[in-house]
Design a protein that fits this description.
Largest sheet: 6 strands, mixed
CATH class of the largest domain: Alpha Beta
Helix content: 40-55%
Order of helices and strands: HEHEHEHEEEEHHEHEHEEEHHEH
Number of domains: 2
CATH topology of the largest domain: D-Maltodextrin-Binding Protein, domain 2
Radius of gyration: 22 Å
Distance between the termini: 75 Å
CATH superfamily of the largest domain: Periplasmic binding protein-like II
Shape: globular
Number of strands: 13
């Protein structure tokens, strides 16, 4: 009798284990995409990327969009999303705060780097950053590297002051698209833009970029990466990484990447983001 009960208990445990494994496998992997990392029109390509990756690893994937980096950082820290496409600035801070790790990064134009463009209206007489003193300027997000950290560093280094004192007014547009539009429509006198987004718009939909002009280009910075939490399941992490890294080798995957002007995904180096850390450290010492 006891042996029979033991067999029944073991059988139930096995059934429960299979059920739990099935439930876990069927649960969608939530991947965050911050809205300001790319032109809004390309979000459908990000959805296609995630669907492609989900198919390759045999798990459903759910795209979670947020309008600012604070929300996305919080979700990743709490485990509400498993993976996140973020800017290089948030990656540096998230790594220091809760051990965020690089999963992969896109490579565009043959390089794993990008720049900040300081832009003005094409008809503006302003020729350099000094000419924007006392003018209205647009940032994107408080944590954005090219949209906030870089221009803040430039103003501090070049003029020994803060953006709030250098410009007559500072606004936050929450996306590089909107910053380009604001300059094109003379809603602001200048803005700092992610070069990847500006170059994409200039080629694919130049309605606003053609009304603007670049007056300064920053040094190169590590490209906005795809990150995960340090304690992520190693097997899942490796499966995701493999799916991203091989995407360009598949005609279907390459077609999706071509849509957002990405060559392929690569293994990024943490050292590529040291220049962002250096800016953050310098700015912290000025406070």
């Amino acid at each position: 009798m006891k042996n029979s009960r033991k067999v029944i208990v073991m059988a139930l445990a096995m059934v429960l284990g299979v059920f739990m494994s099935f439930a876990q496998a069927a649960e969608p992997i939530k991947i965050g995409v911050a809205a300001m990392i790319s032109p809004k029109e390309t979000m459908r390509y990000y959805k296609q990327i995630l669907d492609y990756v989900g198919t390759k690893i045999g798990r459903p994937v759910e795209m979670v969009q947020k309008e600012n980096y604070d929300e996305m950082d919080g979700m990743l820290d709490r485990g509400d999303v498993t993976v996140a496409f973020v800017c290089s600035g948030p990656y540096v801070k998230d790594k220091a705060k809760f051990g965020a790790e690089l999963l992969v990064a896109p490579q565009s134009y043959g390089q794993p780097f990008y720049h900040a463009y300081i832009i003005v209206n094409k008809d503006s007489p302003i020729k350099d950053l000094a000419g924007l003193k006392g003018k209205k300027f647009a940032f994107t997000d408080p944590k954005s590297n090219t949209g906030k950290i870089v221009p803040t560093y430039m103003v501090g280094k070049d003029f020994n002051t803060t953006p709030e004192k250098f410009f007559s007014e500072v606004i936050y547009t929450r996306s590089h698209d909107k910053s380009i539009e604001a300059v094109a429509k003379n809603m602001v006198d200048g803005a700092s833009i992610d070069s990847l987004i500006y170059d994409y718009a200039a080629k694919k939909n130049p309605v606003y970029t053609q009304l603007t002009r670049i007056i300064r280009k920053s040094p190169a910075y590590g490209i906005p990466p795809v990150i995960v939490k340090k304690d992520m399941d190693p097997a899942l992490k490796e499966a995701l990484r493999k799916a991203f890294l091989s995407m360009h080798e598949d005609p279907a995957g390459k077609a999706i990447l071509d849509g957002i002007m990405v060559d392929k995904f690569i293994l990024p180096k943490d050292a590529d983001y040291n220049s962002v850390r250096d800016m953050n450290d310098w700015l912290a010492k000025q406070k």
